[in-house]
Amino acid sequence: MRVVSLDPVDYAVISQGIIAAAREMGAKLIRSAYSTIVREAQDASAALLDRDGNVIAQAELIPMQLGPMKMTFGPCAATHPVDSLEPGDFYITNDPFNGGQHLPDVFIFSPIFFESRIIGFGASVAHHLDLGGGAPGLNADASDIYQEGLQIPPSCYNMERDWNGGRFERLVAANIRVPQLTIGDFNAQFAANAIGGLRLRELAAKFGAKTVIETMAELLDYSERRVRASIATIPDGTYEGEDAVDDDGIDDRPLPVKAQVTVEGDHLDISFEGTSPQVARNLNCPFSSTVSAALACVKSVLTSSDVPFNEGVKRPFNITAPYGSLLNPKPPAPVRARMEPAYRVFNAVMKALAAAAPDRVIACGFDTTVVFALSRLTDSGYRVYVEIFGGGYGASSEADGCDAIDSPLSNCSNTPVEALDMEYDYFRVIDYALLSDSAGAGRCRGGLGFTRAYEITRDDVIFAIYADRFRIAPAGLFGGGDGVPGSCHVLRDGEVIPVNSKAGMTLQKGDVLAVHTGGGGGYGTPGDRSLEAIRHDLAEGLATPGRVAVDYPHAHANP
After folding, report:
1. Residues 6+ apart with CB under 8 A from 295
2. pTM
């Protein structure tokens, strides 16, 4: 047991200062970004780390990107030891097989020097609009990682020598289709790291480096104690859950994800034995993403939001997945769509915990990352639009699921239609609305999905999508009904052309492209839903009379 000698008041001030600094880093990153995927959708994250790479505090942005950050930091430090770093140096990587996630998520770690000593790191990750590869935005047909874009192994560069017009920046810019936007987003990451470093140095100057370092260690211990206490409230035993990815985009066979959750005192073991082997398409999930998805589920179920998500949260857990499986693939497997199996990790662990903590879990939501890319080559270069859609949340024991919101691991915002009108001239949004009747019925209903439709205004627009839950519906819980699956189609000259969940095609002027995201599953028997809640959904157009007559017959018996 580590002996703590901190003054409680100093600890409170410094710890909240560190957390506030991480949040400021996130705001700086978003506000400084160039692309709509970062500036508007906020697909990026920031954190402060100690000198050993432990996440101490993070901005409340994308859970998926931050959970495994130490796993990403470690290979960088192994290649270039921390003690060898100089002012201006930075680590950078996007290697999915060395702690990274998928190639668009580039991690940058900037050392924070105080009185010639490294006391921590500013860290950031952003989903970059384009990093080369076989197609703009995303390559749905990639059969290995080399077709997915530029790989940056765990590396160390220097800002003055290698960036700001230097050799590494020129190398990156030469391999991407939209260098102005992408390099701008890289610079936003550097700006976020810099503001984090400034704030940590200010705390060290005021309270002393030793006190700040001790506070960081105590923050980790605090989160660990809170998580262990929560695990201890769950009955010991092994609990199982299973879900599946619709298919791999080649044939219709589902890809099962199986979780075994073993609770023993204040320790929790999660195994994914029995999960599908890795596949030839981009549905493979790097192990760091598997760890992140499992941790996000357990923390959301067992702890409250006031427990800081840092490296201490991970200490009570042991997470394993078979090497060569969908959740721990061998290189050079393509991994661009790794969020789809990651969500099935979230669902399978949630279902396992339902048997142990039924009042704390939620039903399956649409829980799918719908990545949607439209691009066009013009005389002045490529224009690339990428957006990430969610759908309806699963219901809980106490509340309906949220409507039309990004899924739990992503947490992205929508890109406003006005921003798209300003940025792109080869399409326009003509429909954006909730989908009535898409929620699973229940005592508490699931959240609604939504539709978004685009009129294509130029010829030769390249469309690509990866998604899921187009075939296997989000399951209800404890008698609740399933949510409605998603779908996509193109309307061309009066003909409706269905588009599967992992596809691409060339669109022409006049085409209308529509995506429908799915609803969440319901929780509890529909017959127990209150008449007041049913009438509210009817009045607001969230459900139609015909669907209510089927799902809630007691409402017609008591008009």
Report:
1. 67, 313, 314, 317, 319
2. 0.95
Residues 6 or more apart from 287 whose CB is under 8 A from it?
321, 327, 328
The secondary structure of 470-494 as a DSSP string is SSSPPPPBTTPPPPPP-EEEEEETT
Over residues 208-228, the pLDDT tens digits come to 999 999 999 999 999 999 999
pLDDT over 80 (residue 344) = yes
The position carrying tokens 């921390």 is 82
Give dist(CA 86, CA 377) in Å, integer: 41
Structure tokens that stand for 298 in this block: 């357990």
Parallel, antiparallel, or unpaired: how do β-strands 267-271 and 317-320 relate? Answer: parallel
Contacts of 192 (CB under 8 A, 6+ apart): 25, 26, 28, 29, 32, 46, 122, 124
What SS3 state is found at 520?
coil
- Checking if the pLDDT of 542 tops 80, the result is yes
Cα atoms in the Cβ-side hemisphere of radius 13 Å centred on 33: 27
In the block, which residue shows the tokens 């691991």?
Answer: 409
169: which 2 tokens? Answer: 């920046």
- H-helix or E-strand containing 234? none
